[in-house]
Amino acid sequence: MIAYGYTFIFSSYFNERFYKLYNGIKEIVSSNYSQRIYLDGNDELSEISLIFNEMAEKLNKIDQESITLIKEPLKKEMDLSELQELKSVLEKMKIFEKQASELISKLENKE
What we know:
There is one protein chain. The chain has a domain at 2-78. The protein is 86% helix and 0% strand. It contains two helices and no strands. It has helices spanning 2-29, 44-110. 5% of the residues are buried.
């Protein structure tokens, strides 16, 4: 009976630790890079949790950098589209200026 009790306590202890590790991995897979695992102790599972936390930190950093890299070209594209729009407005202004100049010269010739 005592052996059964120890087996139950031992397995419950490791099941809880494996469950935390399993849930942490699921969170990382779903792109939740802020997930951290804290397992106390000096065994392999606590070392794995430390490595997991380092990996999550690096993935979070890479994710933030990639978002920045994606937004930067979009910003440039917006700048280019704004420049194209400005160019279009300036061309229209030149056309209006030319038409106004022609109208003024016609009016001056009639007088």
